[in-house]
Design a protein that fits this description.
Elements: H1 2-18, H2 24-47, H3 52-66, H4 75-87, E1 94-97, E2 102-108, H5 125-137, E3 142-147, H6 155-175, E4 183-187, H7 200-206, E5 208-214, H8 217-221
Parallel strand pairs: 3-4
Antiparallel strand pairs: 1-2, 2-5, 3-5
Length: 226
C-alpha cells in the first residue's frame, strides 16, 4: 500500500512542478489529469494479478477521466453559456467551453481597458451587467478572473496592472450583487500572450481579461439554496 501512496505523491509533485508555465486552462486540466493518473495507477495495481501492467493501464484511464473530474458541464452551465453568447453577440467577446469544463469569457482591450489603465470602459459595463445577472441566477459556481497586458513597459508595471484589471472587474461584479467570496483573481502581466507582440493590433489582442466560471462536482451535488 505504501508503494501506491508513493505513486500518488509522485503524480502530485509532477503536477505542481509542471504547472508553473501553463495557462489557467492547461493548469486545471493537468491537475485533474495528474491526480486521475495517480488514482488510476493505485486502482490498477491493487486489482490486478500482475500489478505493473494493470497499474500502467489504470494510470492512462485515470488520467483521461481526471482531466475533467474537477468540474462538470451541466445543463445549467450550458444555459449560462447560451445566455452569455446572446449577451455578447455583436461584440468581440469570445464565449467558449474549456477542455476542463469551465465557461470562459475572453474580453479584449477594445471592450475592457484602455492602454495602461485599469478603469472599466463604458462599453464593458453592459457585458458585465448581463454576466452578473447570470452569476446571481446560478449561485453554485466559482469565478476566476485573470488580467493580461501586452509587453509594452516592464514587468514592474505590467504585473500589478494585470492584477488591478482583474480586481476592478471583480469589484464591478460585486456591486451588481455577486458575492465577493465566489471570486479569485490573478494577473499574468505580459507572460501569456495570445499572439506575438510585434504590432499594435497584436498587442491589443494580448491586452485582455479572461473570466472562468466553474461548477464543481461536489458543489453540484449539494442542495441548492432556496
Amino acid at each position: 500500500m505504501r508503494r501506491h501512496f508513493t505513486v500518488l505523491i509522485t503524480a502530485a509533485t509532477v503536477i505542481v512542478s509542471g504547472c508553473a508555465n501553463m495557462t489557467e486552462t492547461q493548469r486545471g486540466t493537468a491537475t485533474g489529469a495528474g491526480i486521475g493518473a495517480g488514482l488510476g495507477a493505485i486502482l490498477g495495481a491493487t486489482t490486478s494479478d500482475g500489478g505493473g501492467k494493470r497499474a500502467a493501464a489504470g494510470a492512462v484511464i485515470g488520467g483521461a477521466a481526471g482531466a475533467i473530474a474537477g468540474n462538470i458541464w451541466s445543463s445549467r452551465m450550458e444555459e449560462q453559456k447560451r445566455k452569455m453568447e446572446q449577451a455578447t453577440q455583436g461584440t468581440s467577446v469570445e464565449v467558449t467551453q474549456t477542455a476542463d469544463n469551465r465557461l470562459k469569457l475572453e474580453i479584449p482591450s477594445d471592450i475592457s481597458f484602455d492602454v495602461n489603465r485599469a478603469d472599466i470602459k463604458s462599453n464593458f459595463r453592459p457585458v458585465l451587467d448581463r454576466f452578473a445577472s447570470s452569476l446571481v441566477e446560478h449561485p453554485y459556481t466559482r469565478v476566476t478572473i485573470i488580467g493580461h497586458t501586452d509587453n509594452t513597459g516592464s514587468d514592474a508595471i505590467n504585473d500589478p496592472l494585470s492584477v488591478n484589471r482583474a480586481a476592478r472587474t471583480r469589484e464591478y461584479l460585486v456591486t451588481r450583487g455577486v458575492a465577493s467570496n465566489r471570486f479569485s483573481i490573478d494577473g499574468r502581466g505580459s507572460h501569456e500572450p495570445l499572439v506575438a507582440n510585434n504590432s499594435e493590433a497584436n498587442r491589443a489582442k494580448n491586452r485582455r481579461v479572461e473570466i472562468f466560471v466553474a461548477e464543481q462536482q461536489a458543489t453540484a451535488q449539494s442542495p441548492q439554496p432556496r
